[in-house]
Design brief:
Blueprint (H helix, E strand, L loop, with lengths): L4 E8 L4 H10 L3 E15 L4 H7 L4 E10 L5 E12 L2 E13 L4 H14 L12 E14 L6 E11 L6 E4 L3 E7 L4 H6 L9 H9 L4
Antiparallel strand pairs: 1-5, 1-9, 2-3, 2-6, 3-4, 4-5, 6-7, 7-8, 7-9
Length: about 210
């Protein structure tokens, strides 16, 4: 089975959110899970390779983050994730790292993460041992799934960013980010995806908002 999946992103204005959710319902997509906060600690090389690969539009690229849900600070279950992009499709590698104290300073939290990667022999993430924290972001997420579970849509709002390297913070509460994962020719995907797509990423947007030299 091909591990890669078609993924598209596009933006909505906040006032369009309720109408879009109603449209999903008409297309047979129902809400799953509960709305929850998503927290990510991104890491990158000293040269910011993941950032520049995205900005330059390389068709083959990846980025690594460490994710937990709910409160930003506290004892949380943390998962390592590496997103690998090849043209219009994506593949994600994951590894559960267990509980960590996310209230620690980002550099210290990352030290604990790298130790856990080594202890668990999470070889898919050994590359991150020579990287460093580059951005923390946080947003509220809603999840939707169609009847045959082949189409997954997420709706992200209340985005905020924090740069651990300079202490700058930013918000992007004026936008809603839609992510759609589906077979490329699925009729729901064809119906929902607009002509104008979201060409950037939350990671790139966060660095642009908090790191002036970019």
């Amino acid at each position: 089975m091909n591990p890669y999946r078609f993924e598209k992103k596009f933006l909505l204005d906040p006032w369009e959110r309720d109408a879009f959710i109603a449209r999903l319902s008409r297309l047979g997509c129902n809400e799953i899970y509960h709305e929850r906060w998503v927290n990510n600690l991104y890491v990158d090389s000293r040269e910011a390779d993941a950032y520049w690969d995205n900005v330059d539009g390389l068709s083959s690229r990846s980025k690594t983050r460490f994710r937990w849900y709910g409160e930003a600070a506290g004892i949380q279950k943390v998962r390592a994730e590496r997103k690998i992009k090849l043209d219009d499709v994506n593949h994600k590698l994951t590894h559960d790292l267990g509980e960590l104290d996310t209230s620690m300073a980002p550099a210290l939290l990352f030290q604990h993460i790298t130790q856990r990667i080594q202890d668990l022999e999470a070889s898919d993430f050994y590359h991150s041992l020579i990287q460093s924290p580059s951005l923390i972001n946080r947003y509220r997420r809603l999840y939707f799934l169609n009847a045959d579970e082949s189409v997954r849509i997420t709706i992200d709002s209340d985005l905020s960013y924090f740069n651990p390297n300079n202490g700058l913070a930013a918000q992007a509460q004026d936008r809603i980010v839609i992510e759609l994962k589906a077979p490329a020719e699925h009729p729901i995907a064809q119906d929902l995806v607009p002509s104008q797509l979201y060409k950037s990423s939350k990671y790139v947007d966060g660095l642009l908002a908090t790191q002036p030299q970019f």
